[in-house]
């Protein structure tokens, strides 16, 4: 998927920035304290040069050195400098804590949003791109809150304070220096305009790098098995080269419009100030302290401007990153919404598909007018070639995707009516490739259900005969499970998934070729367990091996999204249709398949 977004205009950036500021609202008291401390530090920065100016003009120039006033002036200066250090520490600490708290909340919002998105979103979005938004992009936003926002506010107060001090010292010269403000504004606006394009491209390239890396890590077995290392390396190098080029454009822009441009304006300001005092000194006496104070204030004025420009780079990255994060937070492709009808309960387990037609992309129907009924306690098997629509039926029953045409009912209620908790508690799912979470075997069976006793976990494992291998492990049920359960065999992972499903005592079982990854010996051993699991439960089972579903009360044969045959195993064999051909193929009988 192309992760590219439309270019951000100045208006778009302002909208994103205001939305970021919205995260400050719950912390008004902390902000007030931080701003008060900031005002104190800025006041100290302004008063320091003024005290030196007073010393130079009132005492040093006229060679007047009274002990008391000089001592008071010295102590005042020392008090201001020491006080500034202490107040600055607490001010920065307060702002940093606030920034980290905000970014913590943002990451919670993003992580929560990801879990609310529908399967359609994950179908069209690479996992690496999502990871990039949750990690890299939020990290860029954190940098803005931690350093940029604090720096901007501090610099803003300092610039205002410096201008006030300059106007107090010399109104005319202060007015002359305002000529520099439009020049600085032009530099900042120019940088913001071009840097947003560069940073947006940079973030997109980084996202593509993450996506390619995630794909490579997930498919490493196949990459090595089919010797695709060189091809993947070339593809990664191409993206990495694009990222490098984008980074180089960023460096060129920063090198031109950040400190060098501001230093040039600073030099112009010093020339203006010294020229002004040089001209006025021809007719009037110029106080040395005023010159010192003005030059110092000019330096104090441009230092925060320089800091702002340096941080503007981080700010632009954060705005682009925030736009990507907000795009995810605003994603409307959510998981299907339930109506939460209080009276909707799954008690019998009767399932009815009524004229269901469904498409993933809105163009091609993968299911066409699907209708069937699974009576309570019955097993309905779905068979057919790859792409016939078997998994799509399960996806709709489990509410992974929303459907518009037709309806699916359980015990007379539409699946849209049930609470999510009711569906998840009463409908058990076992997939062909089970997913195990990092932790231990017990937590993977319990799935952190605090009300499930240890005895219930063990009973579930015994029920599906998973206890045979679990109890042989060094730590039994406390045996560590690494990422995706990679240290266990496919069959062992499947047995844990069986135990996980039966532990919740569901009313409906959904089996997606649940014995595909289990060896023949283990499969034979758990067939009796499956029969016990199915007793009293309605079962929908996808099967590729027809031998596993011969006792099903109803077998549906799908072809290109339609039910082309239905009946019991023997009835379908007698029809001599598609099912009959599939059966002969699987049993190595070829004479009747013409």
UniProtKB/TrEMBL annotation:
The ABC transmembrane type-1 domain is annotated at 32-317
Q: Which SUPFAM superfamilies match?
A: ABC transporter transmembrane region, P-loop containing nucleoside triphosphate hydrolases
Residue ranges of domain ABC transporter in the record: 351-585
Alphabetically, the GO molecular function entries are:
ABC-type oligopeptide transporter activity; ATP binding; ATP hydrolysis activity
- An annotated GO cellular component: plasma membrane
Keyword terms, alphabetized: ATP-binding, Membrane, Nucleotide-binding, Transmembrane, Transmembrane helix, Transport
Which superkingdom? Answer: Bacteria
* Main location per the UniProt record: membrane
Q: Which InterPro entries match?
A: AAA+_ATPase (IPR003593), ABC1_TM_dom (IPR011527), ABC1_TM_sf (IPR036640), ABC_transporter-like_ATP-bd (IPR003439), ABC_transporter-like_CS (IPR017871), P-loop_NTPase (IPR027417), Type_1_exporter (IPR039421)
Residue stretches in coiled coil: none
- How is this protein positioned relative to the membrane? Multi-pass membrane protein
Q: Which residues cross the membrane?
A: 30-52, 72-95, 145-167, 173-191, 256-279
Instruction: List where in the cell it is found.
Output: Cell membrane
Pfam families, per database record: ABC_membrane, ABC_tran
The record's listing under PANTHER family reads: ATP-BINDING CASSETTE SUB-FAMILY B MEMBER 10, MITOCHONDRIAL, ATP-DEPENDENT PERMEASE MDL1, MITOCHONDRIAL
Name assigned to this protein: ATP-binding cassette, subfamily B
- What species was this sequence derived from? Psychrobacillus psychrotolerans
Q: What is the lineage of its organism?
A: Bacteria, Bacillati, Bacillota, Bacilli, Bacillales
């Amino acid at each position: 998927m192309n992760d590219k977004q439309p270019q951000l205009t100045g208006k778009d950036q302002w909208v994103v920035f205001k939305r970021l500021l919205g995260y400050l609202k719950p912390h008004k008291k902390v902000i007030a304290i931080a701003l008060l401390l900031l005002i104190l530090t800025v006041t100290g920065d302004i008063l320091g040069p003024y005290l030196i100016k007073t010393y130079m003009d009132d005492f040093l120039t006229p060679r007047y050195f009274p002990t008391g006033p000089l001592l008071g002036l010295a102590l005042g200066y020392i008090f201001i400098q020491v006080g500034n250090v202490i107040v600055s520490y607490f001010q920065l600490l307060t702002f940093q804590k606030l920034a980290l708290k905000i970014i913590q909340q943002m990451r919670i919002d993003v992580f929560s949003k990801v879990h609310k998105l529908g399967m359609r979103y994950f179908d069209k979005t690479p996992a690496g791109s999502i990871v990039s938004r949750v990690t890299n992009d939020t990290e860029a936003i954190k940098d803005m809150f931690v350093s940029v926002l604090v720096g901007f506010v501090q610099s803003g107060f300092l610039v205002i304070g410096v201008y006030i001090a300059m106007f107090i010292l010399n109104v005319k010269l202060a007015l002359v220096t305002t000529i520099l403000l439009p020049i600085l504004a032009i530099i900042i606006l120019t940088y913001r305009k071009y840097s947003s394009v560069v940073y947006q491209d940079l973030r997109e390239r980084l996202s593509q790098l993450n996506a390619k890396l995630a794909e490579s890590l997930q498919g490493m077995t196949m990459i090595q098995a089919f010797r695709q290392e060189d091809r993947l390396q070339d593809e990664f190098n191409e993206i990495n080269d694009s990222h490098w080029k984008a980074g180089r454009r960023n460096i060129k822009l920063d090198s031109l419009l950040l400190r060098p441009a501001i230093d040039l304006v600073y030099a112009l300001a010093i020339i203006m100030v010294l020229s002004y005092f040089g001209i006025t000194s021809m007719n009037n006496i110029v106080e040395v302290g005023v010159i010192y104070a003005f030059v110092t204030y000019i330096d104090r004025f441009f230092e925060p401007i320089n800091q702002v420009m340096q941080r503007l780079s981080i700010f632009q990255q954060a705005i682009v990153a925030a736009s990507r994060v907000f795009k995810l937070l605003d994603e409307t492709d959510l998981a299907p919404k339930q109506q939460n009808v209080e009276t909707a309960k799954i008690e019998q387990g009767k399932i009815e598909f009524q004229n269901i037609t469904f498409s993933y992309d809105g163009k091609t129907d993968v299911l066409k007018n699907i209708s069937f009924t699974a009576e309570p306690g019955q097993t309905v098997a779905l068979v057919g070639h790859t792409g016939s629509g078997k998994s799509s039926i399960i996806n709709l029953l489990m509410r992974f995707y929303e459907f518009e045409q037709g309806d699916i009912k359980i015990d007379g209620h539409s699946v849209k009516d049930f609470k999510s908790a009711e569906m998840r508690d009463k409908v058990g799912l076992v997939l062909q490739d089970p997913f195990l979470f990092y932790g231990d075997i017990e937590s993977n069976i319990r799935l952190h259900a605090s009300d499930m006793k240890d005895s219930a976990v063990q009973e579930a494992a015994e029920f599906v005969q998973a206890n045979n291998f679990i109890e042989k492990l060094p730590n039994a049920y406390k045996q560590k499970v690494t990422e995706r359960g990679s240290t266990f065999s496919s069959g062992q992972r499947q047995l844990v998934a069986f135990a996980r499903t039966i532990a919740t005592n569901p009313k409906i079982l959904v089996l997606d070729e649940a014995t595909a990854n289990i060896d023949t010996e283990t499969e034979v051993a758990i067939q009796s367990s499956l029969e016990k699991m199915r007793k009293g439960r309605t079962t929908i089972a996808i099967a590729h091996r027809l031998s596993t579903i011969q006792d099903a009360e109803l077998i549906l044969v799908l072809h290109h999204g339609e039910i082309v045959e239905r009946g019991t195993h023997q009835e379908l064999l007698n029809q001599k249709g598609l099912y009959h051909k599939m059966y002969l193929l699987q049993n190595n009988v070829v004479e009747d398949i013409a």
